[in-house]
Amino acid sequence: MGSLLDKIDIILISTIRMSVPITLAAVAGVFSARAGIMALGLEGMMLAGAFCAALGSYIAGNVLIGLLAGIIGGVIISLFHGILTIRYKVDHVISGIGLNLLASGITTVLLQTIWGNRGNSPEVNSISPIHIPILGEISPLVCVMILVVILSWIVIFKTTFGLRLRMVGEHPKAASTVGINVNRVKYISVIITGILAGLSGAYLSIDHVNLFVREMTAGRGYIAVVVNILGRYNPVGALGGGLLFGFADSIQLVLSGDNIPGQLIQMIPYIVTLLVLMFAVRYIRPPAGLGKNVED
Amino acid sequence: MKSNVKILDKLYAAKGISNTIVLFLSLILALIVGGVFFLANGYSPIDAYAAIFIGAFGSFPAFIMTLTQATPLIFSGLAFAVAIRGGMLNVGTEGQLFIGAFAAAIVGAYIKGCPAYIHIPLVLLAAAIAGGLWAALVGFLKVRFGSNEVITTIMLNFVAINLTGYLVNYPLKNPEGMMAQTKPIFDSAKLPRFFSQYQLSAAILLAALTIAVIAFIFYKTPLGYEIEVTGKNKRAAETAGIKIDRVVIITMFISGAIAGLGGAGQVMGINHSFIDGFSPGYGFEGVAVSALVANNPVLTFFSGILFGAIKAGAITVNRIAHIPMDFVFVIQALVVIFVASPKLVGSILNIFKKKGDK
């Protein structure tokens, strides 16, 4: 009995921990999607965020600077995505894929030029957990995640900016007619996406572990796109979806002690994503302007 | 998700912009930005590109290396091109390549006693079917559930790499030796090499043959026409009486089969067994190979050789200047981005023009 309770405890804690990067990235995706931009570049933003966070923490020896650097890394990639799709009318999907490939290539090159190692960075300072009653030791970024979810929900559904954002995503022409600066709203949302995706990546490298590993996002950016849809383009829904995938990730931890080959366990989140895509998101209606480039 | 399908339709219908100049400039721009990397490494870009050129074409072994590096890229570029012609973004060639390679290794190592002229086709067939079915699943998910193929292919990549990783580490691991690889394939399943001292194998001829078959399908058969029309405009295809669901699944099958053959080529020509995680990303490189020639299946052969040359040259540069080979992936990603952004390329061109006017 004791061991069962222990396992439930482990699953609960690690579900919350593993839900952080997915939820943050999915909320990041909500801002883009609501503005009509398909955020298929989340993977690249997270990877850049993870890398820059490790680099910032390595250089400054300070995790706050690491976090900030991670955010900047995410914003750089997201701004590229924004400029390519908004200004140069590039296909959102191709831009996303191209930037993901770019982030993967650049981080691997920089790993070698900065640290002379193709696989991972040296250990860097990482964020230390804080003590919270009942849950115990937990990362402060868990609190940040909850705060981000609540604030994002308020911003999107209860503020003028949110109203404009949703209008831009649903019907950019109409938004433009009533005097909304469509591109400005889009760029702001793209930057918010970059900040949150960078934060999500930073969590992976300087909180969940304490180093950058090549390709450490491992498809989480794509999973976040699905969670974003599953959560009906709503930050609160993103948290729900994030917890589901946090659970799928955390099962790995519990099973890995039971002699089940690691490769099989590692497939779980991807198979869950496929199942969600097949059965859960079919009838969810995206913002009407999603992925469309408006000719001006 | 459902309306994503519609969005993609429109995007593909609106494309048709990539002309030769944009393609060429995209490559040049990518190489220029790549040059910045050399500078950042304290190495002259001109010296670096000269070294790449010599490393790729400067000698007979160098040219052989170029062709060896090009072989898997031609397959994955062709696979990507075929899928995008049918309106599908197959970023899953990496996974299909793993599945095809694995099937090839199993049929090559466990079917014994048949002559090479039966064994080789059998192995190739197994790889093509395995890779094809793996990709057809994506087509099925698209038409049945409207699942975005970019996400399903990426997810299936991770599943394929982990699944083959499991099989090669546990039930099908070669008991002799420590490495996670399958039993070596029989000699009757090996593709002949041109020269005993180089890895270049008949796989490159197989790539050329595959391109010929694809060109025949595309330019001479109703299926090719149906794929093209479906890719260009789904609604028009439907009106014309084309069963687009069927076409999408077949397109993905063909694309995956080609990727699977690419994996088989590596197993049968170079490694002679399936090695855990053997591909450094050949599948993803196909995106750039295809993009550079505006997804023209026949031209992927030359585009593949070009990127193969850059990779072969990069090996030399890595040896003499210790510049990480991965800068090749940066150049590839930039090619993908620039090719997709004719307006960006155009405005960069304008900057140069204005400077020229002064």
Give structural notes.
The complex is a heterodimer of chains A (296) and B (358). In chain A, 72% of the residues lie in helices and 2% in strands. A two-stranded antiparallel ribbon of chain A has the order 1-2. Chain A is globular. The relative contact order of chain A is 0.21. By secondary structure, chain B is mainly α. Chain B has one domain: Orthogonal Bundle (ABC transporter involved in vitamin B12 uptake, BtuC), CATH 1.10.3470. In chain B, 75% of the residues lie in helices and 0% in strands. The relative contact order of chain B is 0.20. Chains A and B meet through helix 4, helix 9, helix 11 and helix 12 of A and helix 1, helix 6, helix 7, helix 12 and helix 14 of B.
Salient structural properties:
heterodimer; A: about 300 residues; mainly alpha; two-stranded antiparallel ribbon; 12 helices; 2 strands; about 70% helix; B: about 350 residues; ABC transporter involved in vitamin B12 uptake, BtuC; 15 helices; globular; disordered N terminus
Brief synopsis:
Chain A is an all-alpha fold.
Show the helix and strand layout.
The complex is a heterodimer of chains A (about 300) and B (about 350).
Chain A: H1 2-34, H2 42-60, H3 63-87, H4 92-115, E1 130-132, E2 136-138, H5 140-158, H6 160-170, H7 172-177, H8 182-208, H9 220-230, H10 235-255, H11 262-266, H12 268-279
Antiparallel strand pairs in A: 1-2
Helix pairs in contact in A: 1-5, 1-8, 1-9, 1-10, 2-3, 2-4, 2-8, 2-9, 3-4, 3-8, 5-6, 5-10, 6-8, 9-10, 9-12, 10-12
Chain B: H1 2-14, H2 20-40, H3 45-57, H4 60-85, H5 93-110, H6 116-145, H7 149-169, H8 203-220, H9 222-232, H10 234-239, H11 244-271, H12 282-292, H13 300-321, H14 327-340, H15 342-357
